[in-house]
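To: structure subgroup
Subject: Chain for Friday's discussion

All,

I'm putting the inputs and outputs inline so they're searchable in the archive.
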Amino acid sequence: MALGLASRERGAPLRVAGVDEAGRGPLAGPVVVAAVVFAPGRTPINGLDDSKQLTAQRREVLYERIIERALAWHIEFVTHDEIDRLNIYHATMAGMSRSIACLHHRVDVVRIDGNALPRGLPCAAEAWINGDARDRSIMAASILAKVSRDRYMQSLHERFPLYRFDQHKGYSTPVHLAALREHGPCPEHRRSFAPVQAACRAEAEPLAIAELPLTAPA
């Protein structure tokens, strides 16, 4: 915290990078991490909020304004393969680290939504519980992450329409779980997640064929 505290003591306005993610819970697709830096002072965008509190249409409008008016921004996709290799927590931390590495030279302090920080960050950082409801740069990051992931899942629906990713974005809804049971996982499913593992096991099991009683030829 040395860098952030020093800026406060000088009385200079802080350059803050807000960081948030979307997609830790779904069974398929990436986790998307976004970082947003606004110029010190009043945030140049009205209507920012936690992305979960906004309609999809409103998020799309704010996405374009954030991209246009932010001092700097970065969006990082953490693939399903990396999630399976590292586990969801460490994969998310890795995505946050990469996002911050792209912007740290533009900021005094990073504020991350949540209660944990990635290790070895190159700048001062703070973990803010419920930060996406408290800090406008985190709100903006949550919107970029959510919109980017939703767009990606829409593209997955076009590739794998049987799973209806356009409806549930990869979350474990009844429609998604039914598709998993019927079709097995697609290449973008997270094999380390229990419902996908169950679908893989079911897919690997041989079909049981009921034996018919022997009858003498007529």
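Points worth raising on Friday:
The longest strand covers residues 16-22.
The CA atoms of residues 60 and 147 lie 7 Å apart.

D.
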